[in-house]
Amino acid sequence: MLEVEQLRSHYGRIPALGGVSLRVDAGELVALVGANGAGKTTLLRAISGVQPASGGSIRFDGQDLARRHARQRVQLGIVQVPEGRQVFGPLSVEDNLRLGAFARGKADELEPVYALFPVLRDKRRQAAGNLSGGQQQMLAIGRALMARPRLLLLDEPGMGLAPRLVAEIFARIAALRKLGTTILLVDQNARAALGVADRGYVMETGRIVLAGAARDLLADRAVQQAYLGAAA
Q1: What are the pLDDT digits (tens) for 114-156?
Q2: How, if at all, do strands 29-33 and 14-24 pair?
Q3: Would you put residue 195 in left (φ > 0), alpha (ψ -120 to 50) or beta?
Q4: Residue-wise DSSP of 94-119
Q5: What local confidence, expressed as pLDDT, does residue 232 receive?
Q6: Would 134 be classed as within a structural domain?
Q7: Average pLDDT of the chain?
Q8: How far apart are the C-alpha atoms of 187 and 190, rounded to whole Å?
Q9: In percent, how much of the chain has pLDDT > 90?
Q10: Rounded to the nearest 5 degrees, what angle is found at the Cα of 198, between the Cα atoms of 192 and 202?
Q11: Sheet containing 207-213: which strands, arranged edge to edge?
């Protein structure tokens, strides 16, 4: 479904991606892990069309995305849940969800989201800014699902959450995978991300340094030492 080849991107003169290549097959959950500043968010932003690429290619379902703007990529089915959730605080939970369907023009299909996140139904009339961090993360994912994504890009869904809430969020992500949603997941929490993924990539300083089945990366000594807290 997604093919990224030798992708490069810069912030001014500073290179952020130095030739990244990866793929995501239909129905897969692929995890991209690495330390803060490795280029993970930049990669997701480049795929969704928010961050310009300076070289390489991105193909989605066989289509070259080079001349596709971010809105067009959403219409093709690429939808990103941004780092930090970025919900519209003064608006109600339900209005936030309806805005997620703006590009489709159909904002009344709320039940699948409420079935996945029942707390959002209970709080649908509340201002999104009054939700807890975990509930805001559920709302951000639900808002993205309203766009009916073919490829869901999740950027640090566990960031800033208590361990119990991280486990809950990742359980819902695993449920989405079982429903057939194709997901590219970015998170510094390598254990949680690889624990729900089919395959994984490890990024360092704008490059992919390791790739393989998620279970193999979890067992890899270098990954354990760098990201899972194992003793050298």
Answers
A1: 999 999 999 999 999 999 999 999 999 999 999 999 999 999 9
A2: unpaired
A3: alpha
A4: HHHHHHHTTTTT-----HHHHHH-HH
A5: 43
A6: no
A7: 92
A8: 7
A9: 82
A10: 65
A11: 78-81, 151-155, 182-187, 29-33, 199-204, 207-213
Residue 13's alpha-carbon distances to 9, 52, 57, 177, in angstroms, are: 10, 13, 20, 38
Closest by Cα among 134, 106, 107 to 120: 134
Q: Has residue 25 been placed in a domain? A: yes
- Measured CA to CA, the distance from residue 24 to residue 227 in angstroms comes to 23
The predicted-structure confidence for 193-206, as pLDDT tens digits, reads as follows 999 999 999 999 99
Which CATH number belongs to the domain containing residue 87 in this structure? Answer: 3.40.50.300
Q: What is the mean pLDDT of residues 90-119?
A: 89
Instruction: State the average pLDDT over residues 91-101.
Output: 95
- Contact between 68 and 76 under an 8 Å Cβ cutoff? The reply is yes
Q: What is the pLDDT of residue 231?
A: 47
Task: Tell me the residue range of the domain where 179 lies.
Answer: 2-92+149-227
- Tell me the C-alpha distance between 175 and 170, whole Å: 9
**Number of compact structural domains in the chain:** 1
Alpha helix segments (H runs only) across the chain: 40-48, 70-76, 93-100, 111-116, 118-122, 133-145, 163-178, 190-196, 214-219, 221-227
